[in-house]
Amino acid sequence: MTVKATMTIDKEFRIGQIDERIYGSFIEHLGRAVYEGIYEPDHPSADEQGFRTDVIELVKQLRVPLVRYPGGNFVSGYNWEDGVGPVADRPRRLDLAWRTTETNHIGTNEFMDWAKKINAEVNMAVNLGTRGIDAARNLLEYCNHPSGSYWSDLRISHGYKDPHKIKTWCLGNEMDGPWQIGHKTAAEYGRLAVETAKAMKWVDPTIELVACGSSNRHMPTFAEWEATVLEHTYDHVDYISLHTYYGNRDNDLANYLAQSLDMDQFIYSIISTADYIKAKKRSKKTINLSFDEWNVWFHSNEADKKIEPWSIAPPQLEDIYTFEDSLLVGSMLISMLKRADRVKIACLAQLVNVIAPIMTVKGGEAWKQTIFYPYMHASIFGRGTALHSIVSSPKYDSKDFTDVPYLDTVSVYDEENETLTIFAVNRHQTDTLNLDADVRSFEGYKVVEHIVLENDDVKATNQYDRSNVTPHSNGDASMDNGRLSANLSKLSWNVIRLAK
Fold first, then answer.
1. Active site residue 443
2. pLDDT 10s digits, 321-375
């Protein structure tokens, strides 16, 4: 059967310019993200620094513009000084966040080198769990000050004459969580964060700072946490962070694919809270959002309970993603693009091996998970201005959500290159969705490609030795007299590209 949906796309219906950092990602010292992930000196593809060049090539395909580092929960117990200087002199430490042993073979300078190889900036996190103002300002001085001070000269002595010029910094991680080393109340964190922010901006006034928001929308302190933290930090930070993960634990596909509506509400709630504090302070400044952890995460929960404590880089959080997961990841990207006026940074958590689009085999292949594809498509084709589309779609109800549209969509207009890209998910489990779109404001535009990711088996996965879930360009989108027509197959991710 076929169900019908209509939409109107006009180049004047602008949500906002998309900050390319919305396609950022995340590498934490966790599991095999660093060791056996980006770094494996014995691997056949390893470069002179031990970084896997096969992984670098896959990351480049994603065009990742920004990578958050080094955590995550890890950062709340991390002494950054352990990761600089001669590798032979670096201590081994117990990582209390993940109950493993950290060798510190990779630290700040090596990671900055890796980021250059993938053409990405670094979003550096500072430890506000066990440490505070002093460690944060010293790390910033080490990284960004040109020379002539203790910490900048120490960096130069370590072989890095030029400063790293890191622009974006996270003031801690998930400090609202009882699981966090150095967990704090909102008032405790707010006071520490504002004093750290002031000191850091005295060292380098050009940086941007991200304050910790709630770890997820279901925390008991949400959204009072954001309000209290921003009461303290509003004048000194630029972003408030959001984190969320979803999973299909009940094997209820209709409900699972609707979970991006929860993400929508999370974003709207944080915008409202930030703007409330803006009004309360009579401020002209707007706080934007950094969605610096988001993904599907649930497949590996049971396996992670069996890890031997204090082992080095064990397989942790190694979710093997299904086709249905790729659909939700597509919808989560759409949710963020629909608020591109306020969501300026986002980091898919994480990038390699740990709840990641890229997986590696020790000594062997690197391969693409199902979620690699919507993330890549959005990153490549989703640059420009997000447009507000007027959509009419049939809807359904699920266990936790009502009025879930079968059509989930957003459009991106790249004015400079004269292209229009429509990202669309058909959530219908049995029916093709016939899309009729009015695009008359894009005069002279034609369909150049209709990419489709689909699979009859919602549990289909990719592995190092097989790729069951890959996109094709055989979609049937066509144009006639300013109207776009396309059949979106059941349970599919679609990228419809138009150009003048």
1. no
2. 999 999 999 999 999 999 999 999 999 999 999 999 999 999 999 999 999 999 9
Summarize the confidence of residues 288-305 as an average pLDDT.
Answer: 95
Task: Say yes or no: 333 and 352 in one domain.
Answer: yes
Active-site option among 174, 226, 324, 454: 174
Residues 156 and 210 in one domain: yes
**Pair of tokens at residue 126:** 């500072």
From 331, 349, 381, give the residue that closes a domain.
Answer: 381
Active site residue 174: yes
CATH of the domain at 426: 2.60.40.1180
Q: Where are the beta strands (DSSP E) in 350-431?
A: 358-360, 366-368, 385-387, 390-392, 395-396, 404-405, 407-414, 419-426
307 and 391 co-located in one domain: no
Domain region containing 38: 19-381
C-beta of residue 110 within 8 angstroms of C-beta of residue 162:
no
Sign of CA pseudo-dihedral 320, 323, 327, 330: positive
Closest to 77 in 3D by CA, of 26, 138, 128, 136: 128
Active-site position among 20, 36, 293, 324: 293
Helices (H), ranges, 354-454: 372-381
Q: Is a pLDDT exceeding 80 seen at residue 281? A: yes
Instruction: State the DSSP string of 111-162.
Output: HHHHHHHTT-EEEEEE--SS--HHHHHHHHHHHH--SSSHHHHHHHHTT--S
Which whole-number Å values give the CA distances from 98 to 241, 325, 498, in the listed order? 22, 25, 46
Q: Please identify which residue in the block is written with the tokens 């310019």.
A: 17
Which distant-in-sequence residues (6+ apart) come within 8 Å of 376 by Cβ? 61, 62, 63, 357
pLDDT tens-digit series, residues 246-276: 999 999 999 999 999 999 999 999 999 999 9
